[in-house]
Design a protein that fits this description.
six-stranded parallel beta sheet, Rossmann fold, 6 helices, alpha/beta, 33% helix
């Protein structure tokens, strides 16, 4: 669900802590200091089994994830492509992050990615599953960082690369809003980068989780806005 047309990013996604806070000023995005970071839009998270081959419990899981896949293909990927096109045409820096391990059995993964449960995935770096979706694939000269953590800054050289590139402002999009996107945004904010999250360029397992996490991180770790609002501020 996008921000209603009668509400701007300055008043949307307000948590309890910021309900009465004054509206933030318009961001000043500076050429040469601005980068787009696309987080974990990988084949593993977009692949789906044949529903006809599933047993009843498997079909229930399939149906529960259908809204996520619908949002990814009708909203998130088209949004990311549109923003990528603008950043590329304007000559802004573009970076990608992806989850991928260097070992076949995933023994190099961080604890958060090998505890039992949904987040326990093994994505070897050379596998099809670990690759970034072809619809938004990186182009030559665009940076790709590989991580075995939720935050794209932890255990990678991303912070150093951003500093070397002269970047102080990072626009984030990708999946999952309440996991790797949120972890990365928090890390960026703690390292004093100015962060914008594109609401319609992100998704979580459910819309409720997506919207809740945006309320949690908005106005303290980042500013949350729509792609249309962001494009209006780009230099």
């Amino acid at each position: 669900m996008a921000v209603p047309p009668d509400r701007s990013w300055k008043t949307a996604f307000r948590s309890h802590y910021y309900r009465q806070a004054p509206e933030p000023a318009d961001p000043r995005l500076d050429r040469g200091k601005l980068a787009l970071l696309v987080i974990d839009v990988q084949n593993a998270y977009l692949a789906r089994p044949d529903p006809a081959a599933l047993d009843p419990p498997g079909r229930a899981v399939y149906d529960a994830w259908t809204p996520f896949h619908t949002r990814m293909h009708t909203t998130v990927i088209p949004t990311v492509r549109r923003v990528l096109d603008r950043f590329r045409s304007d000559g802004h820096e573009i970076l990608f992050a992806r989850i991928a391990c260097q070992t076949a059995d995933g023994r190099d993964r961080s604890l958060s990615q090998r505890l039992p449960g949904w987040n326990n995935v093994i994505l070897p770096a050379d596998s099809w599953e670990s690759q970034i979706a072809s619809e938004i694939a990186p182009r030559p000269d665009e940076v790709v960082v590989t991580k075995t953590t939720d935050s794209a800054l932890t255990g990678t050289a991303l912070r150093l690369m951003l500093t070397n590139l002269g970047i102080t402002q990072v626009v984030c999009c990708g999946i999952f809003t309440d996991q790797c996107v949120s972890s990365t945004v928090r890390s960026l904010a703690d390292e004093s980068f100015s962060v914008i999250v594109i609401e319609d360029g992100c998704a979580a397992g459910t819309d409720a989780l997506h919207r809740h996490e945006l309320e949690v991180i908005n106005m303290i770790y980042c500013h949350v806005m729509s792609s249309g609002e962001l494009l209006g501020y780009l230099p």
